[in-house]
Write a structure and sequence with these properties.
The protein has 415 residues and is of the alpha+beta class. The chain has helices at residues 2-29, 42-52, 58-75, 80-104, 110-140, 146-170, 182-198, 209-216, 218-229, 232-252, 264-297, 320-326, 332-337, 342-356, and strands at residues 300-305, 312-314, 365-369, 377-389, 392-401. 62% of the residues lie in helices and 9% in strands. A 5-stranded antiparallel beta sheet has the order 2-1-5-4-3. A hairpin with a 7-residue loop joins β3 (365-369) and β4. α9 runs parallel beside α11. The longest helix is centred in the last third of the chain and has 34 residues, at 264-297.
C-alpha cells in the first residue's frame, strides 16, 4: 500500500513538473508577458496524463496540474484571478478530451480511437477557447475575439503533437517491437540532421519557394521511415527531437516557414500545421503497425449458445489456451457465473435475449471473465448474431482479448 502511494506521488509530481516545464517553454516562445502562446504544449501533457492515469486518481492529477498552472501564472506575473479561471477552463477541457476517448472508443478499433481523439480535441478545445475569451471579454468590457483563434489553435496543436509521443514513450511496448535495429538508430540521426539543416537558415526572397517547401518534407519522409522501422519508444523519441528543433527554429524565426514574403501570422500557422500533420502521420502509422501486431498476438474465441437448452459449444479452432480454460464452461449459467461484475452479467443476458427476439446487437461489449484456476482476462464481444445449426436456432458470438491501444492503454479500474 505504501509503495502504491509512493508511486502515485512520484507520478503526480512528474506530471506536474512536465506540465510546468512545457508551459514555461510555450510562454517563452511567444513572449513571457502573454497569457496565450501560439502553441500550448501543456495541453498534450495533460491529455496524455489523464489517458494513462486510472480514473480513480484523476482528481489528484487534476489538482496537481491545476497547481502547476497557477505556478506558471505566478512565475510570469499574470493576474492571479485571470490565471485561476483560465486554468479551470483549460484543464477541464483536457479532462473532457480524455474522458471522451475512453468513453466513446472501441477497444479493438485503433482508428476509431484516433478519430475520437481528434474530433474531441477540436470540439472541446473550441468550447474552452470560447469560454476563456468570453471571460477575458467580460473583464475588458469589450469583445476580445482576436484571441479566439490563437487560443483554440494553441490548444489543438499542443494536444495533437504532444500527446502521441508521450503515449508512445510511456505506454507498454510489445516484445516484438522493443529491439532497436542499426537502420532505426541511423534514421533517428538522419531525421535530426536533416531537420537541423533545413531549419537553420532564413530563406531569401530570391530562393525557390517550391524547392524550399519540398525540402521541408524530407524530415517527414525520414520520420515516417523511422516510425515504421523503430519501436514506438524510439520513434516517439525521434519525433520529440524533431519537434524540439522545429520549435527552436520558430522561436528564432528561422526555417522554411519564415519566408520574407510571409506575414508573422502566416509563418506561425504554417509551423503549427507542419507539426500537427507530422504528429497525425506518426499516430496513424503507429496505429496501423500496432493493429497488425495485435492481430497476430490477440487471442480470439467464438461460441454457439442454444437459447432453448442453454448449452454452450466453443470453437475448437480458436486459441488453444482459451479453449482449454473454457472447456468446463458448457452452459449459459456457468458462463454467467464467470462474470464477477453483476452489471456485465445482466448486460450479457440482455444481449442474448435481444438476439433471440430477432433484435440486432451492433455495439461491442467489454467484460472481464474470471475462470476458476486462471487469471481474470478482459475481453471484447465484437459481434453476436442468430444462426441455424441442424434446423435449430443458435446464438453465435465472437470474442477478442483486449490488449490495450494507442489512446486507451489498458482497461482501467474506476473508483
Amino acid at each position: 500500500m505504501k509503495a502504491d502511494k509512493l508511486t502515485l506521488a512520484v507520478s503526480l509530481l512528474a506530471w506536474g513538473a512536465l506540465y510546468y516545464l512545457l508551459g514555461w517553454i510555450s510562454l517563452n516562445l511567444d513572449g513571457p508577458e502573454s497569457r496565450v502562446a501560439f502553441i500550448w504544449l501543456p495541453s498534450g501533457v495533460a491529455v496524455a496524463a489523464f489517458l494513462i492515469t486510472a480514473r480513480k486518481q484523476w482528481l489528484a492529477l487534476l489538482l496537481t496540474l491545476f497547481l502547476a498552472r497557477l505556478m506558471l501564472g505566478l512565475t510570469f506575473h499574470h493576474t492571479f484571478h485571470v490565471s485561476l479561471v483560465l486554468a479551470l477552463f483549460s484543464l477541464t477541457s483536457h479532462l473532457g478530451i480524455a474522458w471522451c476517448v475512453q468513453r466513446f472508443s472501441r477497444g479493438y478499433d485503433r482508428l476509431h480511437h484516433i478519430v475520437t481523439w481528434v474530433i474531441s480535441t477540436i470540439v472541446i478545445s473550441a468550447l474552452a477557447a470560447l469560454a476563456g475569451v468570453g471571460w477575458l471579454s467580460l473583464l475588458a468590457g469589450n469583445w476580445q475575439m482576436q484571441w479566439l483563434w490563437i487560443a483554440w489553435s494553441a490548444n489543438v496543436t499542443g494536444t495533437l503533437f504532444v500527446t502521441p509521443p508521450l503515449m508512445g514513450l510511456l505506454s507498454p511496448t510489445n516484445k516484438e517491437m522493443r529491439q532497436a535495429s542499426l537502420p532505426g538508430v541511423c534514421l533517428v540521426f538522419a531525421v535530426l540532421l536533416a531537420t537541423l539543416w533545413i531549419f537553420s537558415d532564413v530563406p531569401d526572397r530570391s530562393d525557390n519557394i517550391a524547392l524550399i517547401y519540398a525540402l521541408a518534407c524530407l524530415p517527414l519522409v525520414l520520420l515516417t521511415a523511422a516510425t515504421v522501422i523503430c519501436s514506438n519508444r524510439l520513434a516517439s523519441l525521434t519525433f520529440i527531437l524533431f519537434s524540439a528543433v522545429v520549435l527552436y527554429a520558430s522561436w528564432r524565426e528561422t526555417g522554411p516557414f519564415y519566408f520574407a514574403r510571409l506575414a508573422a501570422e502566416e509563418s506561425v500557422l504554417l509551423a503549427q500545421s507542419y507539426l500537427s500533420a507530422a504528429a497525425l502521420l506518426l499516430v496513424f502509422i503507429r496505429a496501423q503497425k500496432t493493429q497488425s501486431t495485435a492481430m497476430r498476438q490477440t487471442r480470439t474465441m467464438a461460441y454457439s449458445l442454444d437459447p432453448e437448452t442453454g448449452r454452450l459449444a466453443w470453437d475448437p479452432d480458436a486459441d488453444p489456451s482459451l479453449t482449454a480454460a473454457l472447456a468446463p464452461v458448457n452452459s449459459r449459467d456457468a458462463l454467467l457465473a464467470c462474470l464477477p461484475d453483476a452489471q456485465q452479467e445482466a448486460r450479457m443476458a440482455a444481449r442474448w435475449q435481444a438476439v433471440a427476439n430477432g433484435q440486432p446487437v451492433a455495439e461491442t461489449f467489454h467484460f472481464t471473465l474470471a475462470i476458476p484456476g486462471h487469471s481474470p482476462i478482459t475481453l471484447t464481444e465484437r459481434n453476436m448474431l442468430m444462426m441455424t445449426d441442424k434446423d435449430r436456432p443458435v446464438i453465435v458470438a465472437f470474442w477478442a482479448e483486449d490488449k490495450g491501444s494507442l489512446f486507451h492503454p489498458a482497461p482501467q479500474e474506476e473508483g
